Amino acid sequence: MIRSGFLGIVLTCAAAVSAAAHSHYAAGVNDLNGNGVADAGEPLKFIGETPGGDYHLLPKAAGARYGGYYSLDEQPRALFPNDYFTFTALSDGTYSVVEDGHAASGAFIWLEITSVAGPAGGNLGYWEENRSFFHSTPTQTFTANAPTGGFKFVLSEGIDAPGEDPLGHIHNRGWTVDLPGTYVVGFTLYDMGAQGPGGGPIHTPSQTYFVNFVAVPEPGTIALLSVALGVVAL
């Protein structure tokens, strides 16, 4: 009877999780002169929702494939179901509906992992879209409290070309760490294109945004829920 009740709770949680939304952080431009146009030299920024706050990385079920012990991706889960987020880039209207605050046509937007601060000896891993389904190691790994090497990943889904839509909306990038604790990760937007003045970028880099990845220690409840839900790893 107790087991049936527990599974009933788990199934109820799973159903609720499946419909849960997550945040979208959309890259656009800081319209410094207020003219409603993405002008050359204006810096990139996130429009609307802004990265920040705490995101919880939970232990994965035994035997699952992942690069670290604690993970965060788009897989449904009962605890902190809305913690996942997606980095996107706003469209100029070429390939999607035009979105207010978009970067200039021709901008090629990337996001740099600027810094990783966290527990001594800890490592944070970054998974490119769906990579974990075919690879057992993250795309890139960063040692806490050490330089990141300026690692960037692309947000825009087009190419570096004149007039190309800066649009980007790639899901299922994931995160993993191997020690419990809080990892403060800095992110900075860059225009990596060559369509601006003098063959350089159109836009200057954004400010650095900070996100707290909190790797939660493994109380029995979390482990039981992970196994019962059949949560798959990054």
What's a quick, concise take on this entry?
The chain is mainly β.
Draw up the topology in text.
Elements: H1 2-18, E1 23-29, E2 44-47, E3 54-59, E4 70-72, E5 85-89, E6 109-117, E7 123-127, E8 140-143, E9 152-154, E10 168-169, E11 174-177, E12 181-191, E13 208-215, H2 220-229
Account of the protein in words:
By secondary structure, the chain is mainly beta. It has helices at 2-18, 220-229, and strands at residues 23-29, 44-47, 54-59, 70-72, 85-89, 109-117, 123-127, 140-143, 152-154, 168-169, 174-177, 181-191, 208-215. The strands form two sheets. The chain has a nine-stranded mixed beta sheet with strand order 8-7-11-4-3-13-12-6-9. The longest helix has 17 residues, at 2-18. It is elongated and about 50 Å long. The two termini are 33 Å apart. Residues 1-20 and 220-234 have low confidence and may be disordered.
Overview features:
nine-stranded mixed β-sheet; 12% helix; 2 helices; 234 residues; four-stranded mixed β-sheet; mainly beta; disordered N terminus; disordered C terminus; single chain
Tell me the strand order in the biggest sheet: 8-7-11-4-3-13-12-6-9
Give the number of helices: 2
Low-confidence stretches: 1-20, 220-234
The major pleated sheet works out as: 9 strands, mixed
Structural class: mainly beta
Cα-atom radius of gyration? 19 Å
| Tally of strands | 13
> Alpha-carbon distance between the termini?
33 Å
The H/E string reads HEEEEEEEEEEEEEH
Summed over residues and divided by their number, the pLDDT gives a mean of 82
Secondary structure: helix percent: 10-25%
Give the DSSP E fraction (strand runs of 2 or more residues): 25-35%
Described by the principal axes of the CA atoms, the overall outline is elongated
